[in-house]
Amino acid sequence: MDIFDGILLGFSQAATPMALLFCLLGCILGTLVGVLPGIGPSATIAMLLPITLGLDPLIALIMLAGIYYGAQYGGSITAILVNVPGEPSTAVTAIDGYAMAKSGRAGPALSISAIGSFVAGTVATLVLAVASPALSQIALKFGAPEYFSLTLLGIILVVVLAQGSLLKGLAMATLGLLLGQVGTDVFTSATRFTFGLDDLRSGIDFIAVSVGVFGIAEILRNLEAADGMSRAVHKITRLLPNREEFRRSAGPIFRGTVLGSLLGVLPGGGAFLSSFASYAVEKRLSKHPEEFGKGAIEGVAGPESANNAGAQTSFIPMLTLGIPSNAVMALMVGAMVVQGIQPGPRVIVSQPELFWGLIASMWIGNVMLVLLNLPLVGVWVRMLRIPYSVLFPGILAFACIGTFSANGIELNLYVLAASGLGGYLLTRIGCDPAPFLLGFVLGPMVEEHFRRAMLISEGNLAVFIERPISAVLILVTVVIALMTLVPSLLNARRTVFAHADD
Amino acid sequence: MVWNRDDLIAGLVFLGIGLIFAANTLSSLDIGTAAAMGPGFFPLALCTILTLLGIGILATARRPADGAEETERAPLNWRAIFFVVMAPVAFGLMLRSFGLIPTLAVTIALAVAASHTIGIKRGLMIVVGMTAFCVVVFYYGLQVPVDLFNPALF
Fold first, then answer.
1. Angstroms from B154 CA to nearest CA on chain A
2. What's the gap in Å between the CA of A16 and the closest CA on chain B?
3. How many domains does chain A have?
4. ipTM score for this prediction
5. Taking the complete model, does pTM exceed 0.90, yes or no?
6. What domain range is A400 assigned to?
7. Chain A hits for B138, Cβ within 8 Å
8. Which of A493, B40, B71, B131 has the fewest Cβ atoms within 10 angstroms?
């Protein structure tokens, strides 16, 4: 099937009334959680996973994807109007966007951010449509050793780009892999680490863990600070940018789109990294770098395009290899698994309507978001007045019912409480939960590939470096790990010596 | 040289979990050989890596004192932690014996108790409003199969 047929098939799947409705629902929810600080797309997607169980797989994925990219649009509204980035990926937008709002240019900042996001979303969706089938063709030739090495590379990249130290990130990923082992071993049907609990035979519930680590832990983090503060919102006078502003934004939108599309594919990259990279590039290229931080429209146009492009292309490794590149994609893999779909390169071939339908829905969703955001910006701004103290009891109740309704097991609520507390305390001592969740999702897969590879090679570990593709993947993994580890070791030595001189 | 408190705790946590799971693996699971792996082989490998990483974190936890080492941050809010963690636990304990409405009311009341800025009157409004909202969404809307009240109680 060529790309043109694929896109046609996709639109026929994504333009059904049901698909359109859930796409819209996802976009609205996404914008909402993007606007509201204190609840992000990861927590929302985790909490909505159980609800999507009853839906058709494509419809479920369309809605969950809509939440993710919708949150990128919503996050920029609060970043610009109140200087509170609703999402980490819009943190840089707040710098110049808020400065523009203070000088009465909130409207143009919002418009450029929506237009940039739309252009970037459209281009990135095309990139997704072109790159994914090609990549999955390569991946279909992979055997167990290649898959194992590829997963290792994916984990290392997420660890390297996570917050905090490399060792802690690796430890969190390993802990995730280990907890992913709980349950029945598929090869021998022995039960592992169930500690006598029958409900753990099928493993620790993915939904309970992800809602805990993101939803509950996020509530605990937010309650550290004073809740219920009110915020000053800047007025919007003129909405559309003038000719000069359009002219200055074209370049940044184009560069942001390219940068975001590339960085989004990298594991651990996605929207967050893209927006920071774009801001740095625009500042360096600008003829007026002194305007940055004081309301340069380039500082809004670039990062906003980049984060949306990155959000779209971060679907590529998930859809083609079954390897999630960030926490949200790990949740999407989880959503596919609970729907009975084995993520991986076969999805495009065996379920083309799912793959192309999702891609088409992303473009439709981007159109919806532009239409939703610009005229309705006033409605979203009003949402900001809801104090967190009213919001979080509701979030907590939703988390509980959602987790329970997925399969009606009480134990999952205790898992929810424990992973919320554990996730929160570990974050406080500098351990990022993203590598943990990635390890947890990939745990069973990693073991399966490892054991298959060992069966083929009769227990010889050299199989991973004797096969060329696997060897390259392992080499890249080692080089990346060393590149991050060595400078920090050198720094540590340097500080030791510096102090020895005193 | 001083211990970095965060690294010290993290190192001990990972070391401890690694050892506990390793002990459990060795005592209850067949390890096998690399060519014919038992169910315990891969878990034991992971435990070993986790334990080593824990030791690695501990080994780098002692650093030269340079004044600005410990970052300032908000102290643990024990009240919030207690009530927020108790909410799902209460939900799990109560749902089957009492039904959805009493369970939701208690869960939301626990959440409200976690915040020190919500007064009694406002708290009651949140409990009633949110319970009603959740019942409409989940019971009537999404048709989650639970009783509103446990029929055995009445």
1. 23
2. 22
3. 1
4. 0.92
5. no
6. 3-501
7. 401, 405
8. B71
